[in-house]
Structure prediction request, 323 residues.
Amino acid sequence: MTTSARRTALRTMKAVRIHEYGNGNVLRYEDAPVPDIAPDDLLVRAVAASVNPVDWKVREGHLRSMIRHPMPLTLGWDVSGVVEAIGAEVTRFKVGDAVFSRPDIQRNGTYAEYVAVRESEAAHKPRTISHVEAASLPLAGITAWEALLAAGRLAAQQRVLIHAGAGGVGSLAVQLARAQGAHVIATASASNRALVWSLGADEVIDYRSQRFSDAVRDVDLVFDTIGGETQELSWSVLKPGGTLVSIISPPSQDRALALGMHGAFVFIEPNAAILAELAGRVDMGKLRPIVGAEFALEDVAKAHAFSETGRAVGKIVLYVGRP
Ligand SMILES: NC(=O)c1ccc[n+]([C@@H]2O[C@H](COP(=O)([O-])OP(=O)(O)OC[C@H]3O[C@@H](n4cnc5c(N)ncnc54)[C@H](OP(=O)(O)O)[C@@H]3O)[C@@H](O)[C@H]2O)c1
Prediction:
């Protein structure tokens, strides 16, 4: 009997959980129960999970006024893996299917050998990439899609400024904006300029050596992935009637009204339809996941510390199990 089969039989698995909010020291790689599945759930045997900044924000308790998580809590809300079991009402998937998902952030997450994911939150994994690459896509990809294409209504020929073009969300946003036929301007450190060009940016602004607001103007859409002063300065680069979409904090509606512009805030939800679109683009060679760092699940504290530096390039992925 394999280790994994033995754990399933025992109904225990390895997971990274927290029992209290705090710094990286609260992360525990430990035994946890294999989740029970509801009739509309898939039980996914995870091959890879990815790290998003929201993971350490939840770990630190920053979202506790928004989300009431019970403890202990398994962190992580991106997974790629294989369907191990299905609930009685599941129709789109069967045991053995390779799937990827950004599951419900209200439930236990994906830093675990087995994850319960609603059928409505999963899609078939892109065929042409590994589980490690697929795990990097769901949360960041849905975010970039919702911000640029849904909230921002980005159209061909429009000019878009994407902050943090080398980041997890930004590296996908640059590619989606390019595919939309937009003129893409992105900010990045000089060391990431070549990468961001290769993703399809027309202009890359080194935000450390010059203020982006001195270098950019007449933009139809700004995608704010930074907040604070960056969001404030972003109004000045927009055209009249332009739109500022943030994933950090809601832009001031008073400011937008006074300037004759639009402001929108996006906080993403699971979305299987967008996952299927992303998978299709990947398999057509039109979207490329960027995995900048990989860690074993038990080394998650190192992965969080790296994410918290704000210097990650593309996504940080955790290996969980065998494909
Ligand atoms: N509302 C939502 O639903 C939602 C969804 C996803 C993410 N988020 C949030 O969005 C933010 C970005 O997420 P992410 O996953 O893309 O983060 P990330 O991958 O950790 O971002 C790292 C990147 O940020 C860049 N960066 C740091 N400071 C910058 C600045 N002042 N200007 C431009 N670039 C800067 C760095 O670029 P260089 O190394 O090139 O300097 C690095 O490549 C996080 O705060 C996350 O929590 C919100």
Q: What stands out?
A: The domain at 140-265 is CATH 3.40.50.720 (Rossmann fold). The first helix runs from residue 3 to 10. The radius of gyration is 20 Å.
